Protein backbone atom coordinates (compact mmCIF):
# COMPACT_ATOMS: atom_id res chain seq x y z
CA UNK A 1 0.00 0.00 0.00
CA UNK A 2 1.26 3.47 -0.95
CA UNK A 3 0.46 5.51 2.16
CA UNK A 4 -0.54 9.15 2.57
CA UNK A 5 2.34 9.45 5.05
CA UNK A 6 5.08 6.93 5.79
CA UNK A 7 7.02 7.93 8.90
CA UNK A 8 8.59 4.48 9.20
CA UNK A 9 10.42 5.10 5.91
CA UNK A 10 12.13 8.29 7.12
CA UNK A 11 15.96 8.34 7.06
CA UNK A 12 17.71 6.47 9.86
CA UNK A 13 19.92 9.52 10.42
CA UNK A 14 16.88 11.62 11.27
CA UNK A 15 15.43 8.98 13.57
CA UNK A 16 18.72 8.71 15.47
CA UNK A 17 18.97 12.50 15.77
CA UNK A 18 15.47 12.66 17.25
CA UNK A 19 16.34 9.97 19.77
CA UNK A 20 19.44 11.91 20.77
CA UNK A 21 17.36 15.06 21.14
CA UNK A 22 14.89 13.22 23.37
CA UNK A 23 17.77 11.85 25.45
CA UNK A 24 19.17 15.37 25.81
CA UNK A 25 15.84 16.62 27.19
CA UNK A 26 15.50 13.70 29.62
CA UNK A 27 19.01 14.23 30.93
CA UNK A 28 18.46 17.98 31.31
CA UNK A 29 15.73 17.47 33.89
CA UNK A 30 13.81 20.47 32.49
CA UNK A 31 10.66 19.65 30.50
CA UNK A 32 8.50 22.81 30.05
CA UNK A 33 9.44 26.29 28.75
CA UNK A 34 13.19 25.82 28.86
CA UNK A 35 16.18 26.21 26.57
CA UNK A 36 14.88 23.86 23.87
CA UNK A 37 11.68 25.84 23.48
CA UNK A 38 13.48 29.20 23.42
CA UNK A 39 15.97 27.94 20.84
CA UNK A 40 13.30 26.52 18.55
CA UNK A 41 11.15 29.64 18.88
CA UNK A 42 14.11 31.68 17.65
CA UNK A 43 14.92 29.19 14.88
CA UNK A 44 11.40 29.05 13.49
CA UNK A 45 10.84 32.81 13.71
CA UNK A 46 14.10 33.34 11.83
CA UNK A 47 13.08 30.75 9.23
CA UNK A 48 9.88 32.75 8.69
CA UNK A 49 11.83 36.01 8.46
CA UNK A 50 10.35 37.34 11.69
CA UNK A 51 11.58 38.49 15.09
CA UNK A 52 9.39 36.59 17.53
CA UNK A 53 8.10 33.08 17.96
CA UNK A 54 5.80 31.96 20.78
CA UNK A 55 5.54 28.20 21.16
CA UNK A 56 2.09 26.93 22.13
CA UNK A 57 0.32 23.62 22.54
CA UNK A 58 -1.10 23.29 19.03
CA UNK A 59 -2.14 25.19 15.91
CA UNK A 60 -5.68 25.87 17.10
CA UNK A 61 -4.38 27.51 20.26
CA UNK A 62 -2.01 29.59 18.15
CA UNK A 63 -4.99 31.16 16.37
CA UNK A 64 -7.03 31.62 19.55
CA UNK A 65 -4.17 33.12 21.55
CA UNK A 66 -3.21 35.34 18.61
CA UNK A 67 -6.75 36.69 18.33
CA UNK A 68 -6.96 37.31 22.07
CA UNK A 69 -3.55 38.98 22.07
CA UNK A 70 -4.86 41.34 19.38
CA UNK A 71 -7.92 42.17 21.48
CA UNK A 72 -10.35 40.33 19.20
CA UNK A 73 -13.21 38.82 21.20
CA UNK A 74 -16.90 39.06 22.06
CA UNK A 75 -18.87 41.27 19.68
CA UNK A 76 -16.21 41.03 16.96
CA UNK A 77 -16.48 39.17 13.67
CA UNK A 78 -13.68 37.28 11.93
CA UNK A 79 -13.93 36.27 8.27
CA UNK A 80 -12.54 32.90 7.25
CA UNK A 81 -13.18 29.93 4.98
CA UNK A 82 -15.52 26.93 5.38
CA UNK A 83 -12.94 24.78 3.56
CA UNK A 84 -10.51 24.21 6.41
CA UNK A 85 -9.93 22.02 9.43
CA UNK A 86 -12.56 22.61 12.10
CA UNK A 87 -9.83 23.94 14.38
CA UNK A 88 -9.62 27.21 12.43
CA UNK A 89 -13.20 28.16 13.19
CA UNK A 90 -13.21 26.63 16.66
CA UNK A 91 -10.27 28.87 17.59
CA UNK A 92 -12.27 31.96 16.59
CA UNK A 93 -15.24 30.81 18.67
CA UNK A 94 -13.01 30.00 21.68
CA UNK A 95 -11.58 33.52 21.48
CA UNK A 96 -15.14 34.77 21.94
CA UNK A 97 -15.48 36.20 18.44
CA UNK A 98 -17.97 35.24 15.73
CA UNK A 99 -16.77 33.46 12.57
CA UNK A 100 -18.21 34.66 9.26
CA UNK A 101 -17.70 32.31 6.33
CA UNK A 102 -16.76 33.44 2.84
CA UNK A 103 -16.65 31.16 -0.19
CA UNK A 104 -13.58 29.78 -1.97
CA UNK A 105 -12.11 30.10 -5.46
CA UNK A 106 -12.83 26.89 -7.38
CA UNK A 107 -9.41 26.77 -9.09
CA UNK A 108 -7.39 26.88 -5.84
CA UNK A 109 -9.88 26.19 -3.01
CA UNK A 110 -8.48 29.30 -1.28
CA UNK A 111 -10.60 32.01 0.29
CA UNK A 112 -12.24 34.25 -2.31
CA UNK A 113 -11.45 37.95 -1.96
CA UNK A 114 -14.70 38.86 -3.74
CA UNK A 115 -16.74 36.70 -1.38
CA UNK A 116 -14.91 38.05 1.68
CA UNK A 117 -15.76 41.60 0.62
CA UNK A 118 -19.46 40.72 0.83
CA UNK A 119 -18.98 39.55 4.41
CA UNK A 120 -17.44 42.72 5.87
CA UNK A 121 -19.47 44.66 8.43
CA UNK A 122 -18.72 47.33 11.00
CA UNK A 123 -17.99 44.50 13.46
CA UNK A 124 -15.34 42.81 11.31
CA UNK A 125 -12.00 42.89 13.10
CA UNK A 126 -9.89 40.29 11.27
CA UNK A 127 -9.50 37.82 8.44
CA UNK A 128 -8.03 34.40 9.17
CA UNK A 129 -6.54 33.50 5.80
CA UNK A 130 -5.85 29.77 5.48
CA UNK A 131 -2.94 28.81 3.22
CA UNK A 132 -4.80 25.65 2.28
CA UNK A 133 -2.88 22.57 1.13
CA UNK A 134 0.41 24.50 1.43
CA UNK A 135 -0.17 27.24 -1.14
CA UNK A 136 0.20 30.98 -0.70
CA UNK A 137 -1.26 33.35 -3.28
CA UNK A 138 -2.39 36.96 -3.88
CA UNK A 139 -0.98 38.33 -0.64
CA UNK A 140 -0.65 41.88 -1.98
CA UNK A 141 -4.40 41.85 -2.64
CA UNK A 142 -5.19 40.50 0.82
CA UNK A 143 -2.92 43.02 2.51
CA UNK A 144 -4.61 45.84 0.59
CA UNK A 145 -8.06 44.44 1.42
CA UNK A 146 -7.32 44.36 5.15
CA UNK A 147 -5.70 47.80 5.10
CA UNK A 148 -8.71 49.23 3.29
CA UNK A 149 -11.14 47.92 5.90
CA UNK A 150 -8.71 48.49 8.80
CA UNK A 151 -8.86 44.88 9.92
CA UNK A 152 -6.11 42.49 11.00
CA UNK A 153 -4.69 39.90 8.61
CA UNK A 154 -3.97 36.64 10.43
CA UNK A 155 -2.41 33.77 8.51
CA UNK A 156 -3.30 30.18 9.26
CA UNK A 157 -0.05 28.54 8.17
CA UNK A 158 -0.78 25.06 9.50
CA UNK A 159 -0.16 23.52 6.06
CA UNK A 160 2.31 26.03 4.64
CA UNK A 161 5.74 25.51 6.24
CA UNK A 162 8.34 27.22 3.98
CA UNK A 163 5.77 28.41 1.43
CA UNK A 164 6.81 31.84 0.19
CA UNK A 165 5.81 34.57 -2.23
CA UNK A 166 8.04 37.36 -3.48
CA UNK A 167 10.77 36.41 -1.03
CA UNK A 168 8.50 36.49 2.02
CA UNK A 169 7.52 33.37 3.96
CA UNK A 170 4.05 32.33 5.08
CA UNK A 171 3.22 34.06 8.35
CA UNK A 172 5.15 37.25 7.56
CA UNK A 173 2.50 39.07 5.51
CA UNK A 174 -0.06 39.80 8.21
CA UNK A 175 0.19 40.88 11.82
CA UNK A 176 0.88 37.25 12.79
CA UNK A 177 1.05 33.72 11.52
CA UNK A 178 -0.25 30.62 13.31
CA UNK A 179 1.60 27.33 12.75
CA UNK A 180 0.69 23.78 13.64
CA UNK A 181 3.36 21.11 14.09
CA UNK A 182 0.93 18.21 14.27
CA UNK A 183 2.77 15.01 13.23
CA UNK A 184 1.39 14.91 9.67
CA UNK A 185 2.38 18.52 8.88
CA UNK A 186 5.38 19.21 6.64
CA UNK A 187 7.25 20.06 9.83
CA UNK A 188 5.68 17.77 12.39
CA UNK A 189 6.35 16.92 16.02
CA UNK A 190 5.71 13.60 17.76
CA UNK A 191 2.53 14.98 19.27
CA UNK A 192 0.70 18.29 19.32
CA UNK A 193 2.65 21.52 19.02
CA UNK A 194 2.17 24.99 17.54
CA UNK A 195 3.63 28.48 17.29
CA UNK A 196 2.72 32.11 16.77
CA UNK A 197 5.18 34.13 14.68
CA UNK A 198 5.15 37.92 14.46
CA UNK A 199 7.21 41.08 14.21
CA UNK A 200 5.04 42.83 16.82
CA UNK A 201 6.79 42.74 20.18
CA UNK A 202 3.72 43.57 22.27
CA UNK A 203 1.70 40.85 20.55
CA UNK A 204 4.45 38.30 21.26
CA UNK A 205 4.67 39.40 24.89
CA UNK A 206 0.93 39.12 25.44
CA UNK A 207 0.76 35.78 23.64
CA UNK A 208 3.54 34.48 25.89
CA UNK A 209 1.51 35.57 28.90
CA UNK A 210 -1.77 34.10 27.65
CA UNK A 211 -0.25 30.68 26.88
CA UNK A 212 0.87 30.37 30.51
CA UNK A 213 -2.38 30.90 32.45
CA UNK A 214 -2.26 34.65 31.79
CA UNK A 215 0.78 34.83 34.06
CA UNK A 216 2.98 37.93 33.80
CA UNK A 217 5.51 36.87 36.44
CA UNK A 218 5.39 33.81 38.67
CA UNK A 219 2.07 33.64 40.55
CA UNK A 220 0.85 36.95 39.12
CA UNK A 221 -2.13 36.58 36.75
CA UNK A 222 -3.38 39.93 35.41
CA UNK A 223 -5.75 38.13 33.00
CA UNK A 224 -7.28 34.74 32.32
CA UNK A 225 -5.11 32.71 29.98
CA UNK A 226 -4.71 29.11 28.83
CA UNK A 227 -2.43 26.21 29.60
CA UNK A 228 -0.92 25.97 26.11
CA UNK A 229 2.84 25.59 26.23
CA UNK A 230 5.14 23.98 23.69
CA UNK A 231 7.10 21.43 25.71
CA UNK A 232 10.85 20.80 25.67
CA UNK A 233 10.60 17.34 24.11
CA UNK A 234 8.60 18.46 21.10
CA UNK A 235 10.78 21.55 20.63
CA UNK A 236 13.95 19.44 20.61
CA UNK A 237 12.48 16.98 18.10
CA UNK A 238 11.22 19.80 15.87
CA UNK A 239 14.67 21.39 15.85
CA UNK A 240 16.09 18.17 14.42
CA UNK A 241 13.31 17.78 11.89
CA UNK A 242 13.77 21.39 10.78
CA UNK A 243 17.22 20.43 9.47
CA UNK A 244 15.50 18.15 6.95
CA UNK A 245 12.59 20.39 6.02
CA UNK A 246 14.10 21.95 2.88
CA UNK A 247 15.08 18.54 1.47
CA UNK A 248 11.69 17.04 2.26
CA UNK A 249 9.92 20.06 0.75
CA UNK A 250 11.89 19.73 -2.46
CA UNK A 251 10.85 16.09 -2.74
CA UNK A 252 7.19 17.04 -2.24
CA UNK A 253 7.55 19.48 -5.11
CA UNK A 254 9.10 16.80 -7.30
CA UNK A 255 6.16 14.50 -6.59
CA UNK A 256 3.70 17.29 -7.39
CA UNK A 257 5.49 18.18 -10.64
CA UNK A 258 5.28 14.56 -11.74
CA UNK A 259 1.54 14.53 -10.97
CA UNK A 260 0.90 17.74 -12.92
CA UNK A 261 2.85 16.36 -15.87
CA UNK A 262 1.54 12.81 -15.73
CA UNK A 263 -2.13 12.88 -14.77
CA UNK A 264 -4.09 12.94 -18.01
CA UNK A 265 -7.49 11.56 -17.10
CA UNK A 266 -10.41 13.66 -18.42
CA UNK A 267 -12.41 12.70 -15.31
CA UNK A 268 -9.79 14.26 -13.02
CA UNK A 269 -8.81 17.90 -12.54
CA UNK A 270 -5.72 19.13 -10.69
CA UNK A 271 -5.95 22.43 -8.83
CA UNK A 272 -4.27 25.47 -10.36
CA UNK A 273 -0.52 25.43 -10.82
CA UNK A 274 1.36 27.97 -8.69
CA UNK A 275 3.11 30.73 -10.61
CA UNK A 276 6.42 29.87 -8.94
CA UNK A 277 7.73 26.76 -7.15
CA UNK A 278 8.16 28.55 -3.83
CA UNK A 279 4.46 29.36 -3.54
CA UNK A 280 3.41 25.78 -2.79
CA UNK A 281 4.89 23.21 -0.42
CA UNK A 282 2.31 20.49 -1.14
CA UNK A 283 1.27 19.50 2.32
CA UNK A 284 -1.51 17.97 0.24
CA UNK A 285 -1.84 17.33 -3.49
CA UNK A 286 -5.53 17.65 -4.20
CA UNK A 287 -7.48 16.69 -7.30
CA UNK A 288 -11.19 16.90 -8.02
CA UNK A 289 -13.39 14.35 -9.69
CA UNK A 290 -17.20 14.33 -10.18
CA UNK A 291 -17.24 10.63 -9.23
CA UNK A 292 -14.77 11.03 -6.38
CA UNK A 293 -15.95 8.11 -4.27
CA UNK A 294 -15.60 5.68 -7.17
CA UNK A 295 -12.11 7.04 -7.88
CA UNK A 296 -11.12 6.63 -4.25
CA UNK A 297 -12.28 3.01 -4.29
CA UNK A 298 -10.43 2.40 -7.59
CA UNK A 299 -7.23 3.72 -6.04
CA UNK A 300 -7.74 1.63 -2.89
CA UNK A 301 -8.02 -1.47 -5.04
CA UNK A 302 -4.73 -0.44 -6.62
CA UNK A 303 -3.12 -0.28 -3.16
CA UNK A 304 -3.07 3.53 -2.98
CA UNK A 305 -4.29 5.27 0.16
CA UNK A 306 -6.18 8.55 -0.27
CA UNK A 307 -7.96 10.95 2.08
CA UNK A 308 -10.70 13.54 1.67
CA UNK A 309 -9.76 16.96 3.11
CA UNK A 310 -12.46 18.07 3.97
CA UNK A 311 -15.71 16.22 3.16
CA UNK A 312 -17.98 18.37 5.36
CA UNK A 313 -17.61 22.17 5.05
CA UNK A 314 -17.73 24.14 8.28
CA UNK A 315 -21.20 25.60 7.69
CA UNK A 316 -22.69 22.10 7.42
CA UNK A 317 -21.19 20.99 10.74
CA UNK A 318 -23.97 20.87 13.34
CA UNK A 319 -22.58 23.52 15.76
CA UNK A 320 -21.96 25.95 12.88
CA UNK A 321 -25.16 25.78 10.86
CA UNK A 322 -26.29 29.21 12.05
CA UNK A 323 -23.03 31.05 11.36
CA UNK A 324 -23.35 34.05 9.08
CA UNK A 325 -21.85 33.60 5.62
CA UNK A 326 -21.61 35.18 2.19
CA UNK A 327 -25.18 36.23 1.27
CA UNK A 328 -24.66 34.64 -2.16
CA UNK A 329 -23.97 31.30 -0.52
CA UNK A 330 -21.00 28.94 -0.32
CA UNK A 331 -21.59 26.98 -3.51
CA UNK A 332 -17.92 26.58 -4.47
CA UNK A 333 -17.04 25.23 -1.03
CA UNK A 334 -19.85 22.70 -1.14
CA UNK A 335 -18.90 21.53 -4.63
CA UNK A 336 -15.24 21.22 -3.70
CA UNK A 337 -16.09 19.17 -0.61
CA UNK A 338 -18.12 16.79 -2.79
CA UNK A 339 -15.36 16.28 -5.39
CA UNK A 340 -11.93 16.74 -3.76
CA UNK A 341 -9.46 13.93 -3.09
CA UNK A 342 -5.93 14.05 -1.67
CA UNK A 343 -3.29 11.84 -3.30
CA UNK A 344 -0.13 10.61 -1.53
CA UNK A 345 2.53 13.34 -1.75
CA UNK A 346 5.22 12.86 0.86
CA UNK A 347 9.03 12.91 0.89
CA UNK A 348 9.45 9.15 1.30
CA UNK A 349 7.69 8.29 -1.96
CA UNK A 350 9.89 6.53 -4.51
CA UNK A 351 9.81 7.22 -8.24
CA UNK A 352 8.04 3.88 -8.61
CA UNK A 353 5.38 4.95 -6.10
CA UNK A 354 4.77 8.16 -8.03
CA UNK A 355 4.47 6.30 -11.33
CA UNK A 356 2.04 3.82 -9.75
CA UNK A 357 -0.22 6.61 -8.50
CA UNK A 358 -0.24 8.32 -11.89
CA UNK A 359 -0.97 5.06 -13.71
CA UNK A 360 -3.81 4.20 -11.34
CA UNK A 361 -5.42 7.66 -11.66
CA UNK A 362 -5.13 7.54 -15.46
CA UNK A 363 -6.64 4.05 -15.63
CA UNK A 364 -9.83 5.16 -13.85
CA UNK A 365 -12.74 4.95 -16.28
CA UNK A 366 -15.28 6.95 -14.30
CA UNK A 367 -18.74 5.83 -13.20
TrEMBL record:
Q: Which UniProt keywords apply?
A: Aminotransferase, Pyridoxal phosphate, Transferase
* CDD domains according to UniProt: AHBA_syn
Does the keyword Transferase feature in the UniProt annotation?
yes
Q: Which GO terms describe its molecular function?
A: transaminase activity
A Pfam family reported for this protein in Swiss-Prot or TrEMBL? DegT_DnrJ_EryC1
Superkingdom field:
Bacteria
Q: Which Gene3D superfamilies match?
A: Aspartate Aminotransferase, domain 1, Type I PLP-dependent aspartate aminotransferase-like (Major domain)
- Sorted alphabetically, which SUPFAM superfamilies does this protein's record hold? PLP-dependent transferases
Q: Which family does it belong to?
A: Belongs to the DegT/DnrJ/EryC1 family.
Protein name listed in UniProt = DegT/DnrJ/EryC1/StrS family aminotransferase
Amino acid sequence: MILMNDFKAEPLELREAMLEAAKRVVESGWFVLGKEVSAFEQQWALTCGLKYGVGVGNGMDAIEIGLRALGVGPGDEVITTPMTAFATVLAIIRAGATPVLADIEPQTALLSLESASRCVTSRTKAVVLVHLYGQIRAMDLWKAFCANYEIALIEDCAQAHLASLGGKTAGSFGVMGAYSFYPTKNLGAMGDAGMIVTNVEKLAERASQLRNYGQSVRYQHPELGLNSRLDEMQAAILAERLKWLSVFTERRRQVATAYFDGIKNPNVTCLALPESRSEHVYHLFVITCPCRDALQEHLRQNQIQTFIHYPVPIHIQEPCRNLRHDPLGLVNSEHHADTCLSLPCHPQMSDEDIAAVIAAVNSFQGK
